[in-house]
Amino acid sequence: MKKIFREIGMIARCTATISDLEFKEVNLGKGQYLYLVRIYENPGIIQEKVAHMLKVDRTTAAKAIKKLVEMELVEKIKGKDNKKELKLYCTSKGKEIYPFLEKEEEYTVQSAMEGMSIEEKEMVFELLHRMRINVEKEWKDIKKGSKRRY
Questions:
Q1: Which domain holds residue 139?
Q2: What's the CA gap between 15 and 13, in Å, rounded?
Q3: How many domains does the chain have?
Q4: What stretch of H or E contains 140?
Q5: 0.90 exceeded by the pTM?
Q6: Which one of 56, 76, 97, 135 has the fewest CB atoms closer than 10 angstroms to its CB?
Q7: CA dist 117 to 11, 67, 76, 106, 111, Å?
Q8: Residue 82 has pLDDT above 90, yes or no
């Protein structure tokens, strides 16, 4: 059922392009909004957990978060218990942008699910959630060095 993954890919690319264009007015580029939203919604999260949430490697997350810090949208604060651990928080400037990001996400969801019943929306979520769980198991193994058996 390659066509399912191709549809998911097209949806992801379309929404990413739309978001990148929409968020230019707040100077957020190439997926930076994803990081800002996760940090806003999870104050005090560490960089590694953000990377895991977004399913990106640590280097990718580090670069994106560094840009958000340089833009003064996010700040890193040393943990009280572990001074080596840097916790991430949105600055007041980052918090000001969040409602716009949330509004865009809500609009995108409504647009994508137009014409679907509540039951259909729940079914889509359940099926995609199960697919993500299945893929994530393999993703974790491969990140640890395993090879796929075709």
A1: 114-150
A2: 6
A3: 2
A4: helix 118-143
A5: no
A6: 135
A7: 19, 40, 42, 17, 13
A8: no
